């Protein structure tokens, strides 16, 4: 029977510094590396044989993936990288300290940007947008597709077609699939897989660096889920 493993990357250096990260390509912190290594050991201890991995284009997710596979002795597994699993784009908030953002925009406004389902933060600056458009990671993207800011709803709109076209097809073949990604791209998947309401998904928390296992039926209905 198919098995889906969702793993949010370990703590990043900007997580540790309380900064809005989004598409900023920052590294794992030392704690984040430890979280990923520990999770890889848990996968090994449980004897979970992974068939294919999907991850984002951001190094904190990619490095988490490698730690998971290294520690579970599965570095040979195919890894597919896609921008569609990137973290939610935080627009003009990226790089700002969250406390200073609250001082600047107000507690209520920042809370709305962070926790509402369909309200996006302010757009990134023209310089920030040009930096992303000139990044080799995204040279294959049509400029009209590159987001300037995203709500959770916007993130779901770009993630779910990839789930339907790519990830779910591997599961329908009975494979064990690891999706190593980010808090909001994984929340978008969870909302879709579990049919979580718009209101409930905004408060849904996903542990960093901790594999969340879904046992699925052959037609991808959820039988059970649990953290390792």
Characterize the main sheet.
6 strands, mixed
CA-based shape: globular
Order of helices and strands: EHHEHEHHHHEHHEE
Mean pLDDT: 95
Provide a count of the helices. Answer: 9
CATH superfamily: Phosphoglycerate mutase-like
The CATH topology name reads: Rossmann fold
For the secondary structure, the number of strands is 6
Layout: helices, strands, pairs:
Blueprint: E1 3-8, H1 13-16, H2 30-45, E2 52-55, H3 59-71, E3 79-81, H4 98-105, H5 107-115, H6 126-133, H7 152-172, E4 176-181, H8 183-194, H9 198-201, E5 212-216, E6 222-227
Parallel strand pairs: 1-4, 2-3, 2-4
Antiparallel strand pairs: 1-5, 5-6
Give a quick set of tags describing it.
228 residues; alpha/beta; Rossmann fold; 9 helices; glycolysis; phosphoglycerate mutase activity; isomerase; 2,3-bisphosphoglycerate-dependent phosphoglycerate mutase
């Amino acid at each position: 029977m198919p098995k889906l493993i969702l793993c949010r990357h370990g703590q990043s250096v900007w997580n540790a510094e309380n900064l809005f990260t989004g598409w900023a390509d920052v590294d794992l912190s030392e704690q984040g590396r430890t979280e990923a290594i520990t999770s890889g050991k848990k996968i090994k201890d449980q004897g979970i044989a992974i068939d294919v991995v999907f991850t984002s284009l951001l190094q904190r997710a990619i490095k988490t993936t490698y730690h998971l596979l290294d520690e579970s002795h599965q570095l040979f597994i195919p890894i597919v990288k896609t921008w569609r699993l990137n973290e939610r784009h935080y627009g003009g908030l990226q790089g700002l300290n969250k406390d200073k953002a609250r001082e600047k925009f107000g507690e209520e406004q920042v809370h709305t940007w962070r926790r509402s389902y369909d309200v996006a933060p302010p757009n990134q600056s023209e310089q920030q947008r040009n930096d992303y458009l000139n990044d080799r990671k995204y040279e294959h993207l049509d400029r009209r597709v590159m987001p300037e800011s995203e709500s959770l709803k916007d993130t779901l709109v770009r993630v779910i077609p990839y789930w339907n076209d790519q990830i779910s097809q591997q599961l329908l073949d009975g494979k064990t699939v690891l999706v190593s990604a980010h808090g909001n791209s994984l929340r978008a998947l969870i909302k879709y897989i579990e049919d979580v309401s718009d209101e409930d998904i905004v408060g849904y928390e996903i542990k960093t660096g901790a594999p969340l296992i879904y046992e699925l039926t052959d037609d991808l209905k959820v039988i059970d889920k649990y953290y390792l």
